[in-house]
Amino acid sequence: MDDTLPVVVIGAGPQGLAAAAHLIERGMPVVVLEAGATPAAAVAEWGHVRLFSDWSEIVDAAGARLLETTGWTAPSTGYPTGAQWISRYLAPLADVLGDRVRYGARVIGVSRLGRDRLVDAGRGDQPFTVHVQPSEGGEYRLTARAVIDASGTWGAPNPAGADGLPALGERAAADRLTYRIPDFRDRSGFEGRRTVVVGSGHSAITAVLALARMARRDPSTRVTWALRRASAGNAFGGGEADELPARGALGIRAKEFVDAGLVSLVTGFRVERVAADGDGVVLVAEDGRRLAADRVVVLTGFRPDLSFLSELRLELDPTLQAPVRVAGEVDPNVHSCGSVAATGAADLAHPEPGFFIVGAKSYGRAPTFLALTGYEQVRSVVADVAGDHEAARRVELILPDTGVCGGAGLFDASGVSLGGACCAPPPQPVSIIPTASALS
């Protein structure tokens, strides 16, 4: 393989930019391809949301070292919003990388030079070909010694439909549904109205908290939180047992609002149909129950876009669509506190040598990804690409416990106490950052 060829990184988000910084440290040429017009374009879409990880957990070490050569000083403490993460770290890092980052460059295919996925002969000796569609039109092709896919999952949110497909009528009602955490600083679409939040993760909790505060100010604001599972189970997280305090505080406060009657919690609600109802909609569950709403906030997670990787030989878990050696660590059906381990190049490798999926996309449909995880991934992957296999094998990260044991529980089981977690104490009221969020 020609060592003068660049490593192509797909995506200029937190992990993609960190990968580029590590490659530069090792003296390797790199091209970063970003579909958006700016660095961290996906983060910019939730720039109004505050992270539950503080600055020490969202700055990559190699990225910091590269920035420090310009006189940059790392923010010390606090929980930034997505916009602050960009302005104070990600955008400056992209500026230092300069023309190594190409914007408006959407990757539409990755393969091997002169080899489709059927051809064995000489496959590993051929460079990768990366097909790019620029925003100004046309297309071109790059050759690369290795490819690191850090494109994330932001562009592929899961639907409201409980079977993983859009519910009947969901597409037609798209103008009344949103699949991102809204910017609740603009209250006009929510205050004094009926909103249903569908989903059970930290993003859903963040939306529920913001809406509950509106309901506290204006009692005519109605908030319903719809869970697919028959019980709330661990929906409130690990509380004080969570080693990320701001994350644990989200669930504690959400339970307080439910207990206070500011949020109506509905369990076992699996959306089958979305029906128009004047200016609003009615969600119809598989068991016939109905929820009327003016707006629906669908926060049911994301899924990886694998369409442009169809000519590569991937080894993905059939359930999570994550690399098989990662999937067992992050499967939400079995995840227990302390069970998520850092993942490196060996876990992320595929039958296609030199190709790696990192970042949120490496978790497939699992919802538990942290920025810390991605930074350790890219450190290990870049070491492997550089031939430093000892560094690639080394683990330099211990992830914080969620404080939640035993996975999500049986899907149809009922009777699990609200906020219960086998390794967490019952939630107690605490003082939290008012807009602490799930995204990190």
Task: Provide a short characterization of the protein structure.
It contains ten helices and 16 strands.
Q: How is this structure best described in words?
A:
With 440 residues, this protein is an alpha/beta fold. Helix content is 23%, strand content 17%. The strands form four sheets. The chain has a five-stranded parallel beta sheet with strand order 3-2-1-7-16, with helices on one face. Strands 8-15-9-10-11 form a five-stranded parallel beta sheet, with helices on one face. Strands 4-5-6 form a three-stranded antiparallel beta sheet, with no helix packed on it. Helix 1 packs parallel to helix 9 (371-385) and helix 3 (61-68) crosses helix 4 (82-97). The longest helix has 16 residues, at 82-97. The protein is globular and about 65 Å long.
Strand order of the largest sheet: 3-2-1-7-16
Secondary structure: number of strands: 16
pLDDT average, as an integer?
A: 87
Number of helices: 10
What class do helices, strands and sheet pairing give? alpha/beta
Strand content: 15-25%
Q: What's the SSE pattern? A: EHEHHHEEEEEEEHEHEEEEEHHEHH
Unreliable segments of 5+ consecutive residues: 403-410, 414-440
- What characterizes the major β-sheet? 5 strands, parallel
**How far is the first residue's CA from the last residue's CA?**
36 Å
**What best-fitting shape do the alpha-carbon axes yield?**
globular
> Helical percent range?
10-25%
Whole-number radius of gyration?
22 Å
Protein traits:
five-stranded parallel beta sheet, 23% helix, globular, 16 strands, disordered C terminus, alpha/beta, 440 residues
